[in-house]
Amino acid sequence: MRRIIILAIAALACTTIQAQYVNPHFDVWPKEVPNAKGPKAAPTVEPQVESKQVYLKNVTNPTLEEFKPTVAANGKAVIVCPGGAYAILSYDKEGQEVAQWLAGQGYQAYVLAYRCPNDRAGALQDIQRSIRTVRSKGFKTVGVIGFSAGASLSCRAATRWAQPSYEPKDDIDKLSCRPDFSILIYPAYLDEGPEGTLTPELNVSAETPPLFVFGTEDDTRYGSPSSMTITDAMRRVGAPIELHFLTKGGHGYGMRFGAGLIWPKLAETWLKTL
Questions:
Q1: Residue 110 and residue 259: Cα distance in Å, rounded?
Q2: Cα separation values, 142 from 16, 88, 221, 222, Å
Q3: Are the C-beta atoms of residues 120 and 137 closer than 8 Å to each other?
Q4: What CATH number has the domain bearing residue 209?
Q5: Bridge partners, 108 (sequence order)
Q6: Is the residue at 10 inside a domain?
Q7: C-beta of residue 103 within 8 angstroms of C-beta of residue 70
Q8: H or E stretch covering 211
Q9: Long-range residue pairs from 188-194, CB within 8 A, at least 24 positions apart, any chain
Q10: Which secondary-structure segment (H or E) carries 46?
Q11: How many domains does the chain have?
């Protein structure tokens, strides 16, 4: 009886891990991961019963999960960066569900499982390599969208594309890592300068690609100051930005409730202007 119980638990664990991906995925770094903190390994998958979502932890082998368009393809691609305070990834709520929405708009979408925990430098390398990899597949337009820490990463991609973060590995790294647009939903960590000013590493200029920012005033955890800080910085240099700032909404809603039911329609309209 004990052996049967152990086998049942093992089977359940395998099912949970397999449920991490619903579509084909591939490694961002086919060979060595630059500046790796450890060997490549499968991430820890932790279902969150109360909040009905799945966390990924201990990501050492970054991956891109592919979501093909479910309507007529528009020939454009978007990389989705889940949030999680650079500690974990809210992989389904802020990743897969968003990719499915984009696929329903005609985009080829990819969910990026970037390195965590606490590896901002590695995460930047992962997003830059991912943009180049997706561009190598023939997409002339490649955008990014992120939530909370994922929005921070998406903003870093949009403002640090002229600064290589790793040594070139192959011909893919000859391609541009500048995203053609960036969507920031309840962004975090953009106001880490003195007295809440723009985070110093963010090089906002007239060449920064168009940004769409969505935040709420009552997001006292992260998003309220970050949303306003990046908007002010973009306006100062005349770079294109669209800000939607609601009174209430909080943080971490993804596309599931409250403000999460509002921003997708606004983003759809904005995307049609690009």
A1: 23
A2: 31, 25, 30, 27
A3: no
A4: 3.40.50.1820
A5: 77
A6: no
A7: yes
A8: strand 211-216
A9: 188/83, 188/85, 188/148, 188/149, 188/151, 188/152, 188/221, 188/222, 188/223, 188/226, 189/149, 189/152, 189/222, 189/226, 190/152, 190/155, 190/225, 190/226, 190/227, 190/229, 190/230, 191/225, 191/226, 191/229
A10: strand 44-48
A11: 1
Nearest to 255 by CA among 95, 115, 85: 95
Give the position of tokens 């009886």. 1
Residue 141 bridge partners (DSSP)? 76
Sign of the C-alpha dihedral computed for residues 127, 128, 130 and 131 taken in this order: positive
**Does any domain span residue 97?**
yes
Q: How long, in residues, is the chain?
A: 274
Tell me the three state secondary structure of residue 147: strand
Residues 6+ apart with CB under 8 A from 31: 169
In a domain, 96, yes or no: yes
Strand-pairing partners, residue 182, are 144, 211
Listing DSSP states for 173-193 in one string gives: GGS----S-EEEES--SS--S
Of 105, 59, 106, 107, the C-alpha closest to 82 is 59
Q: What is the mean pLDDT of the chain?
A: 92
> 17: which 2 tokens?
């891990």
Q: Residue 182's domain spans which residues? A: 24-271
Q: What is the pLDDT of residues 184-209, one digit of tens each?
A: 999 999 999 999 999 999 999 999 99
Q: Is residue 57 in a domain?
A: yes
Q: What is the dihedral of CA 132, 236, 122, 69, to 10 degrees?
A: -40
Q: Is the peptide bond before 117 cis (omega within 30 degrees of 0)?
A: yes
- Rounded-to-integer distance, Cα 90 and Cα 192, Å: 23
Token couple for 115:
């390195």
pLDDT tens for each residue of 64-110 = 999 999 999 999 999 999 999 999 999 999 999 999 999 999 999 99
